[in-house]
Amino acid sequence: MTAPVSAGKRDRVIVFDTTMRDGEQSPGASMSHDEKLELAKILEEMKVDVIEAGFPIASNGDFEAVREISKIVKNSTIAGLCRAHQVDIDRCAEAIKPAARGRIHIVIATSDLHMKHKLQMEPEAVLEVITRSVTHARNLCDDIEWSAEDATRSERGFLRRAIETAIRAGATTINLPDTVGYTYPTEYADLFRYMIENVEGADKVIFSTHCHNDLGLAVANSLAGVEGGARQIECAINGLGERAGNAALEEVVMALKVRADRLPYDTGIDATHITRASRYVSAITGFPVQFNKAIVGKNAFAHESGIHQDGMLKNRETYEIMTPESVGQAPSSLVMGKHSGSHAFRAKLKDLGYELGQNALKEAFGRFKDLADKKKHVYDDDIIALVDDALARGSERIRVVRLRVVAGTDGQSAQLTLDVDGEEKLAEASGDGPVDAVFNAIHAIVPHEAALRLFQVHAVTEGTDAQAQVSVRLEEDGRIATGQAADTDTLTASAKAYVNALNNLFSRKEKTKPEPAIASGF
Ligand code: KIV
Ligand code: ZN
Asked: Strand 232-235 and strand 398-406: pairing?
């Protein structure tokens, strides 16, 4: 294993992405194994320093994801989360073993509230566990991050002792999470300043922020943490994460880039991959990006009022503090029609940031041709939806072959043919609306117990011939799977999205919950 990531120069901020760990803890945001691998590749291309790929002890699925990502990613450090338990740490060390750079991330709570009620441990016992767990981890890996859960509500004197204990035992990064999204920017900056000035050994480690967005302050708090001396920010694409989420990666990165006059710290991030990463995470989780979301929202660079448009035409800087191109958002332009060839299509995909293998390219080109037959104008956004759709699709045990729907004031019914394991099956069903009729027909062909948790439709572009992009989330026995599909016909897209979700559900391994946090194993 090579040397740990370190800030080296004090003006470098390490970007630690936790989309696949804290992000996946967001209810309903589970990702399949293949989706995680694809996301890891995107994050590596974006030059994210550390990718927290999962919580290896939590499930075999998490373990396998961390292990496979450790094999394929060469330039980013791969971290796995563990509680301060020997079994967690051993499992994590095993998962990150193939990594060129691996990190063990240990968390234990330090606030009175958490120690008393959750851990049911005396503070002195917590310090002993910190020594034992970090020492054990350090014997397995050179790069150890230690997190003080609920740091912002921890008593300062005790937190200081806990940090010193972790540093003495060999921690290389000290993370002070605002676990419940409670802190305020000046207070958080002050916490880092105090610890960096007073903790023995503080100069040997990197301090890190980890902010939750319960009060909408996660990004502001992360930046304040950097002002206070932190040199790592933990964040997630689209701000995904527990409850209200984590600090959004795209926002902290662009704030550091655009306001380098106030925050003179570099990240190594190639921001032109941001839009693609955002769209991909939205596609695989089914979590839509709000239209007015900073940096990656559909309206983030739209200028509607006449005064603004006039200003923009005279000089873009009148109303634009960064260009859409700088975050990889090319203005949605008209692309080729049905006479375009595969070379032009491949060049367009390259422009949009996609490099597909021969088979995937052939398949995407076929789908593009089908779309161009149906739709007069094919835009960049149509192509992105089409490719993301294919990338987000898992195994294809079940496939939509044909769909006919009758809908109107006199009732709704659907006649559907599915290919199930190579055999065509037909069903007819009625329903309370055409979508209900389609889903009932799927049920008739593939009986299952899964409950529908999300059904969402949005138009990819403008106009009545726009493609509908549909997301469906299903839940069965605690397992959650999302499916997505785009089509000019909303009902066909709905049927395909539901079937994709079913395919993902059937191929997903059961996720088991970690055991309670009381026993330490040390
Ligand atoms: O919010 C939190 O405290 C965490 C830790 C595991 C870092 O996610
Ligand atoms: Zn968190």
From this structure: unpaired
Interval between CA 217 and ligand 1 midpoint (Å): 16
Instruction: Examine domains 7-285 and 393-507 and report if their fold is the same.
Output: no
Ligand 1 — pocket residues by CB below 6 A?
Answer: 22, 81, 107, 147, 149, 175, 177, 179, 210, 212
Q: What is the pLDDT of residues 8-63, one digit of tens each?
A: 556 899 999 999 999 998 887 888 888 899 999 999 999 999 999 999 999 998 99
At 1, the pLDDT band (50, 70, 90 cuts) reads very low
CA distances from 237 to 222, 276, 372, 384 (A): 15, 10, 32, 18
Residue nearest to atom 1 of ligand 1 (CA): 179
Distance 442 CA to ligand 2 centre (A): 38
Polymer length of the chain? 522
pLDDT in tens, 450-487: 999 889 888 877 777 788 889 898 888 877 788 888 89
For the whole model, what pTM was predicted?
0.82
Q: Are 95 and 56 in contact (CB under 8 A)?
A: yes
Cα 222 off chain centre by: 18
Q: In the chain, where are the structural domains located?
A: 7-285, 301-329, 335-391, 393-507
Pick the CATH number of 393-507 from 3.40.50.1820, 3.40.1090.10, 3.40.50.620, 3.30.160.270: 3.30.160.270
* CATH code of domain 7-285: 3.20.20.70
